[in-house]
Amino acid sequence: MGHENEKQEGIEQSLDFLGLDRSYSRRDFLRMSGITVVGISALGALGAKAGKEMPLIIMDQAEGIVIADPTKCVGCRRCELACTEFNDGKASPTMARIKVNRNLNFGAKGISGGQRGQGNWGNGLVVQDLCKQCPHPVPCANACPNDAIVVKPPTHARVVDPKKCIGCKICQRACPWEMMSFDSDTKQATKCFLCDGNPKCVEACPAEALIYVAWRDLTDKIPPRVVPTAPVAPAKAETCNECHKK
Amino acid sequence: MGEGKGEGGKESPVEKQNQQDAAGLAVTDFIRRRSEAGLLVTAEEIYGEFLRMGILTEKENQPAELEAFLKKTVKQNEELKEVLDGKGLSHYYSVQSMAETYARILIQREGDPLLLMAEVIRENSQRYPRPVPLNIFEDAPFELTPEQILFCLKKMADEKEYQDIEQTTTSIGTVFLYSRQYLEPDHAAMLAEWLDVGQSNNP
Amino acid sequence: MAKQGGWAGKVLRVDLSTGRISTEDTVEKYKDYLGGTGIGYKVIWDEVSPGTKPFDPANKLIFGVGPLAGTGAPCNGRTAITTLWPTCWPNPLVASGHMGGHFAAELKYAGYDAIIIEGKADRPVWLSIIDGKVEIKDARPLWGQGIRRTTLEVNQQLGPEASVAAIGQAGENLVPMSVVMNSYSHSAGGIGAIMGSKNLKAIGVRGTGSVYIAGNKEEWEKVIKLHLSLLGANNQHVVPNKPQPWAEYYSAGTRWVAARGNKWGAADPSIDTGACDPHNLNRIAYRTNNAAYFLGDRAWKYTVRGNGCASCPIRCHTMLKVPAVASKYGIPEVGQNTCAGLNFGRNFFKSFPDGPRGETAIEACMVGMHLADDLGIWCNYGQMQRDFVKIYYDGIIKNKVSEAEFKSYSWDKYEKGDPTFLFELLPRIANKEGELATALGLGTGYMLERWGIPEEDWRKDYNLVYWKMGHPKHHSNEDAGQCGVIINTIYNRDVQCHSHSNFIRNGLPIDVQKRLAAEIWGSADAVDAAGAYTPMNVYKAKMAKWSLLRKELHDCLSLCNWMGPWVASPLKERGYRGDDSIESLLYSIATGDKKSREELDKVAERIHLLHRALTIRDMGTKEMRSQHDTIPDWVFVDKSNKPPFTKGTIHMDRGDIEKGMDMFYKELGWDEATGAPLAETYQKLGLGYMIADLGKKGLLP
To answer: Does A84 touch chain C (CB under 8 A)?
Structure first.
């Protein structure tokens, strides 16, 4: 019985976080816990609470995604500023969840591009780096030892849960596009959460270089920046067998 | 407007009103989008477009009905305006996307380019005040051909009603036009030079 | 403890003589001076004694930014650099240069509001700032290299995001007409040789921190969006240059050049700029194309995109790609800059074979940018180029240089308008090779002195637009009659004030401008229609005061005076009104220090007064009116002898201007006879501590 109460509490907490206001009956809970791993993403905290029994694996796809046109970027960085000023009350390009400055001068390859590469010092092309809201398997979420990266309705963006994040930065090493940010004031990870469906960066761009569209898989269309070095958290790796076993 | 709906082919008043509202919205949206693109709209164009879109199907009296509906919609909707061209034909635009200045140019362009040029030159000379570079008449929204422009210039030099229209040329060869009724020649020349050369020499 | 809003919190002090690096608390020590030139003037007042020369180690160089730098406030990318000015003639006085780009923002993110450079290193060095870690590094491998290579090599050490302000060979060689540059195309004139005299090759900054907004973030977002909604095109021109569907007005000569059919032709693939309705804040960047504005419509096909400072949506720099120049001149096919920087190369030539807006003019611009922005040569707002045309065609060069040197230049190429001539001239200026190059590099005042040419000759010449003390006018009577003239008397280099010219040139009809003028400066009589000037009145004096104070304010807050103030807007529903309190709104929310428009203008007035005090102190006289606030003769001359205040002439009347100066001094609380601020004015503006010293030296009226 105690275990059930814990689970109930866990559900209520996650529903709170997700902004869902209903109170769930025991019957609802059994129905939910009976469904496969697919539904667990909506019960992030519960999953963590239940520990080894139900680690969080995100299955839901995101509903939306921000797409960038590098041929229109004028290098003003208002997107970075809108992201952090309007969400966090501070101007912090280092923490911005859209990343432009690192490609601005010399392109994505950095200084090795010299004067003939991209960016302001090359041909002018500025590539804007954006979170792809990866489909399953979600690298940052899977690397997190605390199940702190969850799915948030209505956009189903992959979002850092500040109640769970311990600031270990493993997620930063997991993202092939180096899109995880770290907030040095809260000492927690943060990432693009699509501003709940009305992305501030898209609104801010004076060159119409960003659009917010229905989600599509860009993970195999945009080359990664780095080879990720973070493993999948062991507890999660075990659960791969639940769906993928022979 | 609208096909018969409801039982027995008769529309209820509510349904009819809804259809009218929907039609009004469609018309407004169409006009607004055309205005954004810098175009006026005639009833005939709307009719053709709605046919194409399947909002209407061909019926006798329908164009006239549409025209009446349009006039009513424009009357009720502050956003929409009607202008008449030289032949008395109605054109419509949305003030949300198009300024009256632009609409007037478009309307006059259909008529006598001479009148258009003269009015633009006189208005600029009086209001701003400043002369107008000749080359704007080649671009949108005027889009007069070089032949038309030359013809107009000639006519303006000859005809009595246009004796106030004069030319001045800047130091780099750009021709400006002004109305002597509102701008003195020295002033016009100075302004033309300032606009064409002086401002960019003083960045 | 709540984080400080706006200001980063620290002023970095670097003594290159001793190697000592220390910091001060910005708010504690400099809050009353805001930042930028405010901190600069204060440091010069406190720490640099009169009689110091620009290249003395005792001169200081203050890179100052403001509380708004690094934030999302539109148009905040400016760094003001204050020092004793090397081209200020006959005696150096305090002045400031300004550079855009990303340096100001990066400095704030690193944690600093200003850098005070003192002393002189005993060998070439560069300053490395990585957040809290500040080091003086060996720059001997960089010395002798241009700005481009220097920047590249510093970025290799600090990472690609770092912002680097570097000097070229001109600065190294102590050529007074030299610049410091950052972000490829953003220069501050006059600073290069000061850095060179200190053996400071570059400052590289990497900042990973934040600038905090003290106020409520929703409120901040609202003000930012309000500000964005009021923006026009470059120079806050609020009317398009050709009829657009949405526009009630249009006016040839504004910088709002977007239109259907005008494309960024060298974008890949090309992008149509379109009609750019002012309500569409996502298309602000397409409104302006300064290459097309200055070089004619053919520049559209060479336009890759706009560029410019951090945070600014306007993109007043144009990035051009001109494939022909690569094979023709051996230079990169891509180049970028704006205004005087863009026209650097072109302005040397009297004419081109295919006219002022032909291909050759564009090529001359590309060659000029390539050379000048790497060698680091300053143009002094085009004065070097105007001087060059005169001294060549008047036979002065032939007179003043040796026959051998004269023959060493291909003058036939110069006369033909061949851009390859720049390859002969510009490197020599940077390296002080020969009499001509050396003289040009000194700046106008010292060049005239060196060659025994009376300054009078320059003050009479209508085409040179020389003003005084070695520098040209910068938006004077041609832009705003008496207001423009008054403004140009006050500084120790060209005034760099655009508050008035932005308004006058914004494209609105005169009746609308007068309506707005009445609201801002008290009467419709504050402004005249261009070329239809009327006699002086007190409202013009108020406008002159407002123009200068706002320029100073912008230079302290880090706002761009080439865009602000924002007193007009493109919005018909607002009656084309902007908002004259944008600066105070932004300042109050960002810093948490709530100041009304009037209160913030008072702070600006204090800083402006400090500049005046410095000028008086270092000139050693209170006779500003007769000795300093002078006006060249050409201002009072009309080529066709039309009387002043008739239509078609812009020249001024001496008596009327005297009246104007009276009124202006009165507005500022300065003595009308001398132009020196009254003791009570210092007191009222919080500079009472200066009274004793100034009084002792007889510098109070």
So the answer is: yes
Cβ atoms of C344 and C135 closer than 8 Å: no
pLDDT digits (tens, 9 = 90+) for C511-566: 999 999 999 999 999 999 999 999 999 999 999 999 999 999 999 999 999 999 99
Tokens of C632: 């060249």
**What's the CA gap between C655 and C659, in Å, rounded?**
6
Annotation: CATH topology of A62-232: Alpha-Beta Plaits (3.30.70)
Average pLDDT over residues C264-283: 97
Question: Which of C246, C252, C275 is facing B133, going by the closest CB pair?
Answer: C252
Pick C160's closest partner by Cβ from A86, A111, A125.
A111
Is C578 inside any structural domain?
Answer: yes
User: What share of chain C in percent tops pLDDT 90?
Assistant: 99
What pLDDT shows up at residue A24?
Answer: 46
Residues of chain C with C-beta less than 8 angstroms from the C-beta of B37: 245
- For C132-163, the pLDDT digits (tens) are 999 999 999 999 999 999 999 999 999 999 99
Average of pLDDT values for C72-86?
98
Chain B CA closest to residue C508: B128
Number of structural domains, chain C? 2
Contact yes or no for C308 and A74 at CB 8 A = yes
Distance CA(C246)–CA(C269), nearest Å, equals 27
Whether residue C308 and residue A110 make contact (CB cut-off 8 A), yes or no, is no
Chain B residues in contact with C478 by the CB 8 A cut-off are 194, 198, 202
Q: What is the mean pLDDT of chain B?
A: 89
Question: Using the beta-carbon criterion (under 8 Å), do A208 and C221 form an inter-chain contact?
Answer: no
Count Cβ neighbours within 10 Å for each residue of B12-43 and write b for 16 or more, e otherwise.
eeeebeeeeeebbebbbebbbebbbebbbbeb
- Distance CA(C120)–CA(C133), nearest Å, equals 21
Question: Which residues does B145 contact at the CB level (< 8 Å), separation at least 6?
Answer: B138
Domain with C18, as residue range(s), is 10-206
Render B115-169 in DSSP notation, one character per residue.
HHHHHHHHHHHHHS---EEGGGGTSTTT---HHHHHHHHHHHHHSGGGTTEEEEE
Interface of C with A in 86-125 (CB under 8 A): 102, 105, 109
- Domain residue ranges of chain B, discontinuous segments joined by +: 7-104, 112-201
Whether C149 contacts chain A with CB within 8 A: no
| pLDDT tens-place string over residues C487-515 | 999 999 999 999 999 999 999 999 999 99
Third-level CATH fold of B7-104: Arc Repressor Mutant, subunit A (1.10.10)
Kindly list the residues from chain C whose CB atom is less than 8 angstroms away from the CB atom of residue A117: none
State which residue of chain A sits closest to C109, comparing Cα positions.
A92
- Nearest CA to A17 out of A204, A206, A191, A150 is that of A150
**Which residue did the predictor score with more confidence, A127 or A112?**
A127
